[in-house]
Every structure is written in structure tokens, then in C-alpha cells.
Write a structure and sequence with these properties.
Dihydrodipicolinate Reductase, domain 2, five-stranded mixed β-sheet, elongated, NAD binding, EC 1.17.1.8, 4-hydroxy-tetrahydrodipicolinate reductase
Amino acid sequence: MSDLPGVVVTGVSGRMGRMLVQEIAASDKLRLAGAIERAGHDWVGRDLGLAMGGAETGVIVSDDADEAFAGAAVVIDFTAPEATIAFGALAAARGLVHVIGTTGFTDDQIAALEAASEGAVQIRAGNMSLGVNLLTVLTRKVAEALDADFDIEIVEAHHNRKVDAPSGTALMLGEAAAVGRGVALGDVSDRGRDGITGARTRGDIGFSAIRGGDIVGEHDVIFAGPGERVVLRHVASDRALFARGALKAAAWGLERPAGFYDMLDVLGLN
């Protein structure tokens, strides 16, 4: 097993970080080579297995990403935009595959990530699940078929600890709808309604966000026309599906030339 490509998990103490560790342990294609946490975190310097309440793994949690990346082939990153930008530069410098599930990027941050992908494989997706990526394709197709008489609304629901809205998946779906309509999402996005807002603008793509409890992820794309509605829906009930998707992306990326990819590429849907 030691000859398998090594993976470093960033933000390892988080829910996705722990899930990734568990999925890597069960994998026959990848092995855990390193674990990263922010400086000052109480896991830093401890054996990861013991920190997670289990048996020793021999992997020591580090706050030095460059050192941890030295023995790896892949970085899987579900953290925060600023951290991901830094990890992206380090991963590119070492030629590592960088799988990014982080969301909430600004346009400038996305540009910085795309620049890093010129020297290494980078796979970034607002959602790593097969079902959501199929939903993205369907959303684009339906948007192509239905004109602006059908209003497009994207409704997403997540747990009460999610910090960004709309979700990365919702924005991914909005982008797919905009491509289907032949417009730029930035020109037609309607993300906030409060008070007397006036009538809906024809052709806009609306977003609504629900936050509560332990909802893993639910996304509806509504095409509301005169006398009828078309609703496309995906419900995630197990967070492990995102970790499995990230590992699939990691293994796929090891066989690809440098450049930017997304999950549609990984799944052969582009």
C-alpha cells in the first residue's frame, strides 16, 4: 500500500477533512501522506489517528503545508478561499494535483487559481457528486430549450454552519442556466430580495438560500412558466458522497496534463 500515490488533506479537523481521511483509509488507489491544520490548532503536532479518537496512523498533523506537500502527489482541499489560494500556489510549484472543493471565491481569487493551474493539474468544483453534475448538464439543456417566458429560480438548503451563500453548487447551477440561455450570470443574477423590490425582471436567474439544522445539501432548479413549472432536484443525504467524488477526481487527475478541470471532465460529461 505504501507505493500508492500520497494524498495530503487540508483542514483535516473539519467535517469534510475527517470524512476524506476515512475514505482514503478505505481506498485501494490512494494513501494518506499528510494532514494540514491552521497554525495554533490543538491537533498540530499530534498523530492524526489519535487526534480523531482512534488508533495511531503515523501521520502527524502539520501547519507547514510546503513540508507536508513534499511527500505527496495530491492535495485535497475543502477549506476557505484565502487558504486555498495559498495551497494552490504551493501545489503548482511542486506539480501536485490540487482537488478543490472550497467555495465562496471572488472573481479575482478564481483568476489566481486558474493562473496556478497553468503549471499543474487543478480540479475545482462547487460540488463533487455525480448527481449534482448530472443536474448541471440537465439545467443547461432545459435552459436552452425554454425561453425567458420561464423564470429560473435556484433554491438551496444547507446546514446551519455553512458560511457562504449562495452555495457553490447553486452558483454552478446558475452558471449552467446562464450558459443555456446564452447570457452572463453576472448580468442576470438576482441574489437578494427584501422589502418592496418591484416585479421580477424578465430573464433574471434568482437565488434563495436556506440554512438550518444538519441539512447536507438540497438544490432545486425551478423553471416557472405560464401555467406550468419544470423542477429539477438533487438531495444529498450522506456527506461521504462528496469525499468519494473528491477521491475519484484525485485519481483521475494523476493521469492528466497540467490545466484546469472540473467534475464534468472527471465524469466524462463535458
